[in-house]
Predict the 3D structure of the following.
Amino acid sequence: VNVGFIGLGRMGRAIAGRILADGHSLTVYNRTPGAERELVAAGAKPARSIGDAARGREFVITMLADDVALAEVVGGGLLDSLDEGATHIAMGTHGAAMIAHTAEDHAAAGQRFVAAPVLGRPQAAAEGQLAIVAAGEPSAVAACEPLFAVIGRRIFAAGPNPEASAAVKLANGFVLACAIEAMSEAFSLIRRYGVEPELFREVLTGGLFSAPGYEIYSRLIVDQAYDDPGFTTALALKDMRLALEAAERAAVPLPSVGVVRDRLIGAIAHGDGERDWAVLAREQARAAGLEKD
Amino acid sequence: VNVGFIGLGRMGRAIAGRILADGHSLTVYNRTPGAERELVAAGAKPARSIGDAARGREFVITMLADDVALAEVVGGGLLDSLDEGATHIAMGTHGAAMIAHTAEDHAAAGQRFVAAPVLGRPQAAAEGQLAIVAAGEPSAVAACEPLFAVIGRRIFAAGPNPEASAAVKLANGFVLACAIEAMSEAFSLIRRYGVEPELFREVLTGGLFSAPGYEIYSRLIVDQAYDDPGFTTALALKDMRLALEAAERAAVPLPSVGVVRDRLIGAIAHGDGERDWAVLAREQARAAGLEKD
Amino acid sequence: VNVGFIGLGRMGRAIAGRILADGHSLTVYNRTPGAERELVAAGAKPARSIGDAARGREFVITMLADDVALAEVVGGGLLDSLDEGATHIAMGTHGAAMIAHTAEDHAAAGQRFVAAPVLGRPQAAAEGQLAIVAAGEPSAVAACEPLFAVIGRRIFAAGPNPEASAAVKLANGFVLACAIEAMSEAFSLIRRYGVEPELFREVLTGGLFSAPGYEIYSRLIVDQAYDDPGFTTALALKDMRLALEAAERAAVPLPSVGVVRDRLIGAIAHGDGERDWAVLAREQARAAGLEKD
Amino acid sequence: VNVGFIGLGRMGRAIAGRILADGHSLTVYNRTPGAERELVAAGAKPARSIGDAARGREFVITMLADDVALAEVVGGGLLDSLDEGATHIAMGTHGAAMIAHTAEDHAAAGQRFVAAPVLGRPQAAAEGQLAIVAAGEPSAVAACEPLFAVIGRRIFAAGPNPEASAAVKLANGFVLACAIEAMSEAFSLIRRYGVEPELFREVLTGGLFSAPGYEIYSRLIVDQAYDDPGFTTALALKDMRLALEAAERAAVPLPSVGVVRDRLIGAIAHGDGERDWAVLAREQARAAGLEKD
């Protein structure tokens, strides 16, 4: 099929690469030029504008960093240029309110909209191993499925309401955040009692918590390996903010997420905003007087 | 070896049974008579008193429900009757302060003390599949290891400070509590957005959280299966209280545990104290107006 | 002096009325027509547009409900029409980010900007009894002082940074919110112990808390008088959101405000969004099983 | 009347002094000798033991530092020696559980028990300006009233359940704690926005919070005057613990108190345990990166 792709960060390039490799016609656009080079060398067509990327495509995929970027793309040409009946697939992590507004805009323009955030890192994307949480009008989601099959190993259909996929993505994210915070508190406690962090790590991951979320982050915490971030404190704070906004919108208190939010802010106040968010463990240790600034 | 065993609840009976089956001489005592019957039929000797269970043994294992029961056993005969050089192994879940006091008492009496709480359920104990977190004077812990090998599949040596094993046990417990709370908040959020709980469960356990802690409790939450408790809300609150006390003693703030504590109290206020503590999800749903009392 | 006034809600009308009564030339504008009627009858000139209200005035005062309304007024004519050297005084409760953006816009246009939120209710405004927290370039603030003297009984100069006055206003607001939440928790506790709420109210207000914040809200709580709101739960949630955003912007964790936020959301989930925010006490009582939905 | 008095700390001496000055027969006892000297010089009789202080008195007042001290006094002679029909008035700050147990013990012994904690500092006690919150069997409370009239300016009768007065005392205490925490958060926020703390103090205490609780503590915070404690962080933590225990006993979640608890623990972790608990503001500033350890 004929696909437009807007937003060529690491994740965007990995996903676009799979679509291209599968033999589809792909037109790519990135606000900052240069990111499209490799894809174009591999056969993608470069677009000169958002409108250019959108016009005449059956599907336009956006993989954008935040709500502001999505608003600028939608308002800056996508809405005006997307054909009637064509589908915008938003694969970035966005807030529920933003997704709701975007859905309304497309509906008013006679276009289709599927919110389909992904779970996994760019490496998983390149290998077609992402999980995709898709929500939108059922026939629109169904029409996307062949494309999704190229991108991910598993597709979760979260129902007709596009916001639902945002809720799932954000909830999955904060469950991880709470796990990291809980580990952070636990490591502070056992350190104060003279226990080796590595031993406690083995207790955790050898029992109830033998899962990647605990394996990966307890390793970073034990090694205090915060300087080569997989995901930064600042980005984590953004995701917690989106989760809290989605929850406020739906009238759901999230007290644990509030705790994580405060610790992330504290980490930023102490200069750890661009470190890996496992640095929550260091922020918690500061609160317990175990680490100096 | 010659072992005394005090405290024959479900977990105590399972552990005592393994020691007996391994060919050791076992003398058993339970405050409420009757619990020893099966073990005695299998060859254990019944003790008429705590002192009787303790006198002349190389090891006395206690598996008691709480700190009060431990204090009553230690003060009610164990301390007076245990031989000099013999070892008291406390395998229940106790507070750090209680463990510290018990350690001091035994040291003053020339007796050895190892705190060795276990991770796992009675069924795992019967199968020798427990994990044991042992702490105490290294030669005392080493002397216990043959016994531990009969009981558990894995032994974690948490160092010379007996309180350290309490800290590890309590920390492992609250990491699970925080996971259940985080899932509870997540399920409330996605329900409000119209997502099927089962779908969200698959997202969680199919990705970062493919571990027993999440598999088991997300299943209970999705099925709202709270009435056949594996572990009750009231007992969970007791463990959170011990964790918070251990943390206060060591000057460690535990904000996430404070959140769990409040939800557990809320669940009890709404009549769910004797239900499975996965009922946290229902208490969270109440707070979000999703469930009526 | 020649004053424009935009935003004629209850508070706006009260402030505008005082300026008019003091003999100044006043031009008024409200998005929804009709609100200006009484002021016009008393001698104010009606403006047909935002630009009309702004052009040729020395001062333009805005008293708007939220950040969106302020953005619409600034972008919808105020910025374009305000004379160079003239001053925009923003007296609504706005977020720190919004105030910062507005300040930049006016500076770029050669206009002056003073953020001057008020403390007090419309009745106090009508009597000239407001407190005003003003921040901005010192000479600009000084130039506003004669006008402020007409409006309020006390002026606090919070320095050259316009955001500073937003921070003061929001902080004062959340200190009150935390007081209401603390009282709510206290009333739940003493009710469970069989104490008459009125007696506890007397203890509080007869001692350390003999101040309007406690007098007023403990009275509402004891009387459960939530249906004639002085300030609604929904508006309170908006102010807590602004406070948390201002805090996030400045990297300050506010754990108590997070607690209030969750209770306000819970109150909204239970249908109390348009009641007086003293209804926090009822939401807290629900969490303690003392009130049914 | 004939009064025994046990516990001659600063508050105890002040209260005992008023009773003596009013012309009653007073017998005094303190565990650590010496504290009774001044009272004896003024006419009080020294007791050699708890039993000696209790035997033959109509009323025995205890003013003890904590639950452990009260348990030791009750079990160490008071219960055995107090005459049938005589009244034990416990004026210290105690936990609800401790008060309940003490009440049961006295009832079983045919003695009367009134829990009557006080609000105010020793200076207020010396001037007869305390508030007294009394609870117990109504005729027993009524019989105490002449004595209370000598000690305090105001008596609050909290009903027949002795625990009720503990609940009132603890609730009043945590409302203050929450106010100090809220101010602490507010001062951190406004400092980050460049506002002078003194200005913010004037805003608070000039408006909704013109009460001693805010006047006193905002002054200490602005002056960072933590080294001459009126009440220490460690004692405040003890009171929060009692409040949380009383709340757990009654199934009441207290999320704000949990926040205060964590900050107090953090302050202790940073070495501020023996400073005035207004040092919460410094601990909060640490969390915001505004203060180094």
Summary: The radius of gyration of chain C is 20 Å. The mean pLDDT of chain C is 97.
